[in-house]
Give the backbone structure.
Amino acid sequence: MTYYNDGMKKRYKNKLYNILALLILAGCLIYGLFYFQSDTEPPSSEAVIIKEEELPEYTGDPSVAFHDNIPFFSKEELFRESFEEYGERDGLGRCTYAYALIDADMMPDDERESLLDIYPTGFQNREYPDLIEDGFLYNRCHLIAFELTGENVNMNNLVTGTRYMNIEGMLPYENKCASYIRRTGNHVLYRVTPVFIHSELVCRGVLIEAESVEDDEIRFCVFCFNVQPGIKIDYQTGQNKRD
């Protein structure tokens, strides 16, 4: 039988306390490793889900405010480190979302390369020279514009969009963000989600969300309609004809 005097008991107790403290510290480190992201790591994102019955009705405007014009971003998503994230295409080859925190360094200086060899889902193009200024119905639309990130030949960032949606719907918002970033040097959190119904290959439109990080100058959530006045589109296939 072993007997402990008061000194031995004290040393033994201190040793137990030290071991316990080390175990607690190790546990905290492991917890932090698994549950906390680095400040430079962008948050994960998923496409905003919009149900068919929630789609706004086209009444003649190329875009309308959605969700009270308030982006779906959480506060945790307003990171200060720039990043880009392009969702994987689904089983039908359709784009899912594009998401970025954009700064001036990401914006390109070079001219955009041709996209003529790229065919997003439903790209059944046809020319209507008397109805459309540039002739052809469809554009290869970047979800996040080339002028914002320089991303060009990326099938995860390209959808079949009408000339009307591209120029009248999306471009004003893209230009607004690009101009703000160039002028201020600030960051804009930006996400574009194409909205498909069931198995349709052409999206009904795109949801654009944007929010400036350092101030409140940029903040909007809009739906841009993938329509073309005077043209009827079969969204299931991309085929089209005069209305």
The two ends are 100 Å apart (CA to CA). Residues 6-35 form the longest helix (30 residues). Residues 1-36 form one domain.
